[in-house]
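Lecture 7, part 2: worked example. A protein chain together with magnesium ion.
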Amino acid sequence: MIQDKSLEKVLSTTKGHIQKLSNLGVNTIKDFILYFPRTHADNSEYTKIADIITNETVSIKGKLTNLFTVTSKYGKKITQGVFTDDTGVIQVAWFSQPHLTRLLPRNKEIVLTGKAKYSFGKITFQSPSYEILKPYEEQLHSGRIVPVYHETEGISSKWIREKLKPVIDGYIELFEEHLPDEIRQQHQLIGLKRALKNIHFPESDEMLDQAYKRLSFDELFILQLKVLQKKWHWQHSGNIQSKVINTEEDHLKEAIKSLPFELTGAQKRSLLEILNDLKKPFPMNRMVQGDVGSGKTIVAILAALNAVKNGYQVAVMAPTEILAKQHYKNFIQLLSNFSLNIQFIAGSTPTKQKDEIIRQMKTGTADIIIGTHALIQEKIGFKNLGLAIIDEQHRFGVKQRETLKSFGTPHMLSMTATPIPRSLAITIYGDQDLSIIDEMPAGRQEIVTKVVPETKRMQAYRWIEDQIAKGRQAFIICPLIDESNAIEVKSVIQEYAYLQEHIFPNLELTFLHGKLKQEEKDLIMQDFKDNKINILVSTSVIEVGIDIPNATIMLIEGSERFGLSQLHQFRGRVGRGEHKSYCFLFTNALSEEGKKRMDAMERHTSGFKLSEIDLQLRGPGEVYGVKQSGIPDLKMASLTDSKTVEKARSSAEMIINEDPTLQKYPKLLERIEQTQKVYIND
Ligand code: ADP
Ligand code: MG
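Predicted complex, written out as structure tokens:
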């Protein structure tokens, strides 16, 4: 395609400039036109010289006279001139650009854009940019809204405008519309060519908005099409056996009746969504999101029971041994009426026992197998795995997920206690369907949350001591340290030693950090659970999902360094029992944004609400952590723009439902294939 032609053949410029463009990822005509501006500056109005206010950026239109370059006593070259319009006269000065004496015409219309400054007793227009007006030629730098690009050495916005304009004029007609008409009409989007022209050189403010709207929708739509198509291909690839799991109403009713509580509306809804998926002749790929304590486990247990009653095996994988064991106990307890063979397997399971469990898994005698990633080690196999459940799925890598899937492509159910805003979720987990448990079981107490001023630190410690005397336990989270793991570990040990020696000499304290082995961490957590430890001093590694009903105090140091979701996660460690629970936030210097976050923590109890606020305050990368996540590298769109994300999602769903392989939309297909890497971990 001509659009793929190298810029070297098109631009009249130096090899150096071509190389610099290439460093920006711009090699072809298409790259250049898709090199979108960072922002725009409104240079459409001219200011009269008589109306100039110092230190404000303005464009003035007039004529230059008396231009000459002098050398100051410090050896600096100053080019000076006099600029005149019909309202007045102003001095102009440029520094170290003597060539302007040759370049700038006298007594011809030019436009200067810059600031007037007051210095040494006079007002001078200093180092303005200029545009020489030529009859019959479009103005690029003034008299309009102008694009401002990310610049690098030697590649200024001005340079880009001058080089890009003819490329757009010459080649834009080659860009073919790929969005189907009905989608453009539905969302009132302008055409591609018009959008591309206007994103660089807008005809008006209105057209700039339209261009932005079209191109950001476009970007999100293509992204959604890609993930949905990937999902479709996975669910319909030829080697997938259909594992239809029918709803066993009687068994489910019996299990639900035996629960010591009523399911919440959100639990029932999520369960129905899962049961509905299980009935389909292709594998489910669903994620349940719900705050800590919202009751995801019961939903998983009921889904598991349903699968077993259909003759399938179920695997449940949790990120740590202690968490897996907790699930194991819960499954056994809640399914005790059904005489199922439920097994537990983890790194610590003795080899002989392990071999026996694996044998049962392979022969199909084991109905439900719960464990850590020991579940997916080499020797493992299943007779007939129908459902795989992954708890805290974000703690597992893509590979581990895929391994579990590879045991006969079971239905997949993932759970996470880290709610993220929907706009982010449908982007990051785009190939999974979402079930949301956004309702807490009745009768849960709210956790009292308070930002504690430094002056009340001792008071807080004495209060904690008091609570511990009454039998309770506390967590103390040390500040997040970016520099290195080693420093973080050191600081936790120091904090622990200080607290043990000076603050709580009569209590049992210990510490936890990420450098400890998993077994050591599990051991500490077990001791804490057994109330052999009063206070656990920890880094942010503290395990998610563990029930320690007797812990009622969460004290967080340097709270401002954590995002809202993480603070909320910490807070979720307490308030799991009958006793009233508390979360104390200590902070150092607070920024405006930090204040808002602390305020949100005091005010809100829903993880969903907090993650929305965090997304608005800090953006998707901060909320989710760019590195490990699948946050796409968006040029135009923003994931905080949840309306556009939703529109793009529903339009993409419509197209994929109607025509999953895009036979009717060859241009879309081509466009998707050109968009190589969408996700960072693709
Ligand atoms: P999470 O979503 O954090 O995994 P769990 O499933 O571990 O939450 O449930 C937390 C606690 O709440 C458990 O002790 C569970 O028995 C209890 N629970 C779950 N659902 C309900 C309900 N509908 N009403 C009352 N208690 C519930
Ligand atoms: Mg859980």
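The pocket of magnesium ion (ligand 2) is lined by residues 296-297, 391, 417, 545 (CB under 6 Å). DSSP finds 22 helices and 20 strands in the chain. Keep this in mind for problem set question 3.
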